[in-house]
Design goal:
Length: 364
């Protein structure tokens, strides 16, 4: 039986900066064919350097997680149901999604990375409400009840809120018109994606637009992905090429259940109508956890995690996260073995030759 998975187009790693990405074994020798790195770091020189090694370069773009901006522009702080700026849940600072100057600033930065760095695609990150969900127990307060959001909501939906202070209006919103409120907020976030698509098509047609997004199904956590995080994947699908679901099994309370990765990916495929067949408009490329964040990922689990991350409808996988993983030689070796084993031989590039998975450590 062949270990090849010809449907897997991307064998990626995610890292913050080039020195970290470059450390140790040359990446092509690990079977890696794509690098995801911060838009804050990537530039033309770095992208050219990686392209020369045959690697695709994708920039991770921070959309709505900017503590310093909020500190300097208090009007951009998400407002809680008491009318006061909502403290960052578990230290995670979001931004009001209707702050016009912030949005313009972000769009300009997005365009600058695309035009100057020459990357192969942009991946939206943190595109959700003011909430800490990248942990086993999410912390998701209700926001944003700033005067701007409340006025826009009423103008755009025709819903009239009762006269009174924010406390009264927020309480009213979370009652009867809640569905409209949630739908409107999902639309606000989806409209950010629309503008990112417009910029991409205008300044670098052909570049991919992807999203690193929450891995919950419509039912998980009582529907909180839509209700609280305001991520409507179907609405965003008209603008996105690639969905990089983030099933960090160890970090998110599934340390002993790596099958959770393929279950969530499978759900996403059904939700979006993606099967992993060639030529599809949308692609699903999960980013999976191999580094120790919150929980340890043992070396014996590396192949299992990658196996579940590369099952259809997935057609690509990325590994989180190189900055710490690179210090764990055994795991890096196991990653390299897996990537070599699944790479189509004709696309092997710099790799020496395919090595079968049977030589790898047995999964637990
Ligand atoms: Zn607001």
């Amino acid at each position: 039986m062949s270990d090849e998975r010809p449907w897997v187009e991307v064998r990626g790693i995610y890292g913050w900066s080039l020195p970290e990405v470059e450390g140790g074994t040359p990446l092509a020798e690990l079977g890696v064919n794509a690098i995801f790195m911060s838009a804050e770091v990537v530039n033309r020189e770095i992208a050219d350097h990686l392209h020369a090694q045959g690697l695709r370069v994708f920039a991770e773009f921070n959309t709505l997680h900017e503590a310093q901006y909020v500190e300097e522009h208090p009007g951009a702080a998400p407002v809680g149901r008491d009318g006061e700026p909502c403290p960052p849940p578990d230290g995670w600072q979001g931004v009001c999604p209707t702050h016009p100057e912030y949005r313009r600033w972000k769009m300009a930065r997005f365009e600058r990375t695309l035009t100057e760095a020459g990357v192969d695609g942009m991946w939206l990150d943190y595109l959700h409400s003011h909430a800490a969900w990248e942990q086993a127990e999410p912390n998701m307060p209700d926001t944003c009840f700033c005067p701007r959001c409340l006025a826009r909501f009423q103008r755009e939906t025709g819903v009239e809120l009762p006269a009174g202070d924010v406390l009264t209006q927020a309480a009213s919103l979370l009652g009867e018109p809640r569905d409209q409120w949630v739908r409107w907020r999902c639309g606000v976030f989806a409209d950010w994606v629309r503008e990112f698509r417009e910029i991409t098509d205008r300044v670098r047609p052909g570049a991919l637009l992807g999203s690193f997004h929450n891995p919950w199904s419509d039912e998980d956590w009582d529907g909180a992905r839509i209700e609280m995080l305001n991520i409507d994947l179907k609405a965003q699908a008209q603008y996105l090429d690639v969905f990089s679901i983030m099933p960090y099994h160890a970090r998110f309370g599934h340390a002993q259940d790596p099958e959770w990765i393929s279950r969530q990916t499978s759900w996403l495929g059904r939700c979006l109508g993606v099967t992993g067949d060639p030529g599809e408009r949308h692609r699903i490329w999960p980013i999976v956890q191999l580094s120790d964040w919150g929980e340890t990922v043992p070396v014996e689990q590396v192949h299992v995690v990658l196996d579940h991350g590369t099952r259809r409808p997935s057609t690509g996988v990325t590994v989180f996260a190189w900055h710490s993983l690179r210090k764990q030689a055994e795991k890096v070796a196991a990653l390299g073995q897996f990537y070599h084993a699944i790479a189509p031989v004709e696309q092997a590039g710099n790799r020496r030759r395919a090595r079968p998975l049977t030589r790898c450590p047995k999964p637990t």
